[in-house]
Amino acid sequence: MKRTPTKVAKAQALTDGAALNTGLVVGSHGRHCVVETADGQRVICHPRGKKSQSVVGDRVRWQAATDEGTIEQVQTRRNLFYRQDEIRTKSFAANLDQVLILIAAEPEFSETQLTRALIAAEAEQIRPIIALNKSDLGALFEASWQRLAPYRTMGYTVVALSLKEAQLQADHPDQHHPLSPVAAAGQAQLLQLLSGKTTLVLGPSGSGKSTLINSLVPGAQVVTGEISQALNSGKHTTTTTTWYWVDSIASSTEQRTALIDSPGFQEFGLHHIAPTQLAQLMPDIKAHATECRFYNCTHLHEPGCGVLAQVETETTPGAISARRHRIYKQLFDELGQQRW
């Protein structure tokens, strides 16, 4: 049986007086969240004070009221994956083992957005996994797969998926819908990568995040609806971040597999990162940054720059793709306009 309960529980009778409970934040929208207790009940909670501080994945101490609860303390995080633009900071989730960045062959993915997400993960020392969806699209997929060659060379794990095929198989288990060899291999690889880990599923709208969640978590739509209704958040796909248990468990202490579904995004700000940090957060740039003549080289125009010497040109191959260096320059210029 799944640990995820079929209903969002009320907090009544879970505590006596001022005693504090511990729990896991499994749903979040605005200032409201859903906390899962050790025995699997789910309770609507609110932060103490005006500022919302807890995010999905947080371990918290909370106090029960009449039928809800109050977050009294957020326990120390291992990490926090977030983005920041000129106006605000958007926190996705905390205490992650890895981030699955889901992109698709169609619509064509943005390499700049992919790079921004990878940099954010590197900054928090969270392992990133790149998954390219729609391997069933033939030539379109092959072109996208080739675009990801530099990322495979850098050592990133890149998985080929066909979520359309996987969903068809999940929806009709009694019928014969075999996966193509590429899709089958990718599905097996993905399941192995997810096993026993807490993974944030990140990606732009249209990449297939909902299809991925529904194919791996039976009843995900039911859980989503309950949490969204409890938080009064409207349509889940645009507002709520939700935690799903993927595997069955025998005890509360057993290692478990979890997916966190986040709202789709079109922009990914990195205003929390200084331009001088970028080189260390982009593996292909970092690999040659120590070869420069000057210790404070920006890797943009300096003589004797080890990075520039490795950037490919139309006539000369190089260890760093021209696209990647252009993205580095764009980000350096963007972040350099801020005050640090």
Task: Encode the helix/strand succession as letters.
Answer: EEEEEEEEHEHHEHHEHHHEEHHH
Q: Could you name the ranges where pLDDT drops below 50 across 5 or more consecutive residues?
A: 4-8, 10-17, 234-238
Helix share bin: 25-40%
Architecture per CATH nomenclature, i.e. the level-2 architecture of the largest domain: 3-Layer(aba) Sandwich
If strands are numbered along the chain, what order do they take across the biggest sheet? 1-2-3-5-4
The helix count comes to 11
Major beta-sheet overview: 5 strands, mixed, barrel
Q: Short description, anyone?
A:
The protein has 340 residues and is of the alpha/beta class. The protein is built from 11 helices and 13 strands.
What can you tell me about this protein's structure?
This protein has 340 residues and is of the alpha/beta class. It folds into three domains: 21-74, Beta Barrel (OB fold (Dihydrolipoamide Acetyltransferase, E2P)), CATH 2.40.50.140; 80-261, Rossmann fold; 275-336, Ribonucleotide Reductase Protein R1, domain 1. Helices cover 29% and strands 22% of the residues. It contains eleven helices and 13 strands. It has helices at residues 111-123, 139-147, 149-153, 163-171, 181-194, 209-216, 220-231, 236-239, 278-281, 283-289, 322-336; strands at residues 21-29, 32-36, 42-47, 59-64, 69-74, 80-84, 89-94, 98-104, 127-133, 157-160, 198-202, 241-245, 258-261. The strands form two sheets. Strands 1-2-3-5-4 form a five-stranded mixed beta barrel. Strands 6-7 form a two-stranded antiparallel ribbon. Helix 1 (111-123) links the parallel strand 8 (98-104) and strand 9. Helix 4 runs parallel beside helix 6 (209-216). The protein is flat, with a radius of gyration of 22 Å. The chain starts with 20 loop residues before the first strand and ends with a helix. The model is unreliable at 4-8, 10-17 and 234-238 (pLDDT under 50).
